[in-house]
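Example 337.
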Amino acid sequence: MNFIDEAFLEVRAGDGGSGATSFRREKYIPFGGPDGGDGGKGGDIVLRVNGNINTLIDFQNKKVFQAKNGKAGSGKNKSGIAGDDLIIDIPNGTVIYDDESGDQLIDCTDKNMNYLIARGGEGGFGNTRFKSSTNRAPRKSTPGFKGEIKLLRLELKSLADVGLVGFPNAGKSTFLNKVSAAKPKIGNYPFTTLRPHLGTIKGVESSYVIADIPGLIEGASQGAGLGIKFLKHISRTGLLLIFVDLMPLEELKPAKQITLLKNELNSYKDDLTQKISWVICNKIDLIDSSELKNIKKEIESELKIPSDNIYFISAFTGEGTEILLKKLETEIFRIES
Ligand SMILES: Nc1nc2c(ncn2[C@@H]2O[C@H](COP(=O)(O)OP(=O)(O)OP(=O)(O)O)[C@@H](O)[C@H]2O)c(=O)[nH]1
Ligand SMILES: [Mg+2]
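Predicted structure in complex with guanosine-5'-triphosphate:
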């Protein structure tokens, strides 16, 4: 399935029905008073967060949404029937922008929330409303009001507590596979992951969500590789895990990998290097354990990263992941409370 995280739509709330001009006609009452009812209200357009939807793909084909108009009022002071609201389901984490002004309208981050995005027009007044001591038989009634029309841009920014960043092949997806029920594809070639995947980790006290995104390469901020367009999915996370591939130990040293990755994170519009980040050196099963101390020292001294923020794991065997997950749970709890 394609992953679509941006969509453009036009929403049209219903117009109000017009008010009626009508007079009572009953036997033996030659000049009945006005009895025109008001028009019904037009339907609203409502956005509803639906936890079962994860992408904006449904909006690729359907782009215009129209709620029902209100019905006109009628005689005997009958109000017109209101137009039905139109409910549009969107994934949690969708940010809604007014596509004309560019303004952000709402950030949908509450499960099961409904947001009124375009209001239906009120119904017009029937002629009963215009009756007065000086005009007992008003012929006046008013049309309904127009419903709101908006052009929207929807952007999906995943809701995750932890984001995984790293070069392609570093083992991000292997890690998510190992520690959660999520099953992103693993491959021994770059750019195996083509879209974000979310995995839930059940901790001791609480659950949290990790986002695995496609790998970054040098120049990603200029569009190289898959670029940085997926970084928006980790822009909300409190904590980043910078995955270092220990395999190309000589060609691309861990400290160099981290520096290159941070350059790309820094070029992103929200400067993601401001976030708390830990370094995860992966594939220790392939490295002589005597090397690990040196690697750690190098990262600490070259990049001034505290040793507490450097972890060594094998996503493949699971070694080191248990302690990492424990620390993650504590840290997320600290960040979010
Ligand atoms: N030996 C060993 N191999 C690993 C480990 N972690 C990942 N791999 C292998 O490295 C390759 C890449 O793993 P992925 O998990 O697909 O890497 P990724 O970071 O998600 O890559 P992209 O999706 O391309 O960004 C696969 O062949 C994995 O089996 C590890 O801890 N030890
Ligand atoms: Mg991957």
